[in-house]
Amino acid sequence: MPNLTAARPFTARDFAARTGRAAEAAAAAGLAGLVVTPGPDLLYLTGYQPVAITERLTALLLSAGREPVLLVPRLERPDAEACPGASSLRLLDWADGADPYPVLAPLLDPHGSYGISDAAWAMHLLGLQEALPDSGYRSLTRAVPMLRAVKDADELERLGGAGGAADAAYRSILEVRFAGRRETEVAADLAELLLEYGHSRVDFTVVGSGPNGANPHHEAGERVITEGDTVVLDFGGLRDGYGSDTTRTVHVGPDVPAEVREVHEVVRVAQQKAFEAVRQGVECQEIDRVARRVITEAGYGEYFIHRTGHGIGLTTHEPPYMVEGETQPLVPGMCFSIEPGIYLPGRFGVRIEDIVTVTATGGRRLNNTPHELGIVA
Ligand code: ZN
Ligand code: ZN
Ligand code: ZN
């Protein structure tokens, strides 16, 4: 059973440290500051998440050496005042019927370049550009990609808890019936298990049986699973605010064809070697190269059709990415997936995925179920 005790809540001091670091990172990236709208970055920096994300402008403005400012719709001010990071923010509001951009604009450098949330509404970005025609904007993730990438001890505890809960769901799913049931039914079982083991939200439950397993992002469909199928199970969601994401491949019935065994073993070795390559200072692309080399040398290189991994935290896909061309060095506290796979079109797929964190001495897995091909009934 996973540890279901709640982690220590993040405090005003945590959020103040994060906004300070973010403002410094923006300055180091040559930016006048950051404009953060509702989503994972705002949650990370303030603990604030409006009840509903609507067309009304909510924006956090961070600039090095200046007090952070959170502009909110007046009717949402009480909610914002109650957020855990509120004590180190200056709150401003704007009333319905007013134009919010002239309220925010005087706080920005009119000639400055700002990082703005990736998911900020275009209407808000256009409103700022109209109010300050000489200001410039860059995607926040592109400007400061490592903003949330290095997790602190409390975040690691949450990610470990999410991983442990996903592992418990996998162990339990091995006991359910596969043969004769639809993929959607097994997916529903997985979702139920994730919630049972403490997830607040299920983000995906991939059940790719037989040929469907050859599509890495096949979710689950009406196909009825039969004896002899190889099935890719990839599932995760949020627990205590942080993500889980794990994949194991199982076979329905004990008579596993030699080819399935061989492909599975290649993927297992690729995942293991990539994990063993995790060390601080190693470039992200090296993790991808190590996994890809194993699969290519075994003759399956053209069937490994996606990057080796992605970061995970408040969201299930975020920097750092384990992909060719990513020269960012690994730093202790980073968390990401290692998930090589082989996809044989029209036949079957195999993927093995663990979340891994970088430690002072190497890597540590946050998923710890066996890598062997699971046998289900
Ligand atoms: Zn994915
Ligand atoms: Zn996954
Ligand atoms: Zn993943």
Separation of the first and last Cα atoms: 23 Å
Weakly predicted, low-confidence segments: none
* Strand order, sheet with most strands: 4-3-2-1-5-6
| Total domain modules | 2
CATH superfamily of the largest domain: Creatinase/methionine aminopeptidase superfamily
**What is the H/E order?**
HEHEEHEHEHEHHHEEEEHHEEEEEEEE
Count of extended strands: 18
CATH third-level topology of the largest domain: Creatine Amidinohydrolase
Oligomeric state:
single chain
Compute the CA-based radius of gyration.
23 Å
User: What small molecules does this complex bind?
Assistant: zinc ion
- CATH secondary-structure class of the largest domain: Alpha Beta
Largest sheet descriptor: 6 strands, mixed
Number of helices: 10
Mean pLDDT: 96
From the spread of the alpha carbons, the general shape counts as elongated
CATH architecture of the largest domain: Alpha-Beta Complex
- Kindly state the percentage of residues in helix: 25-40%
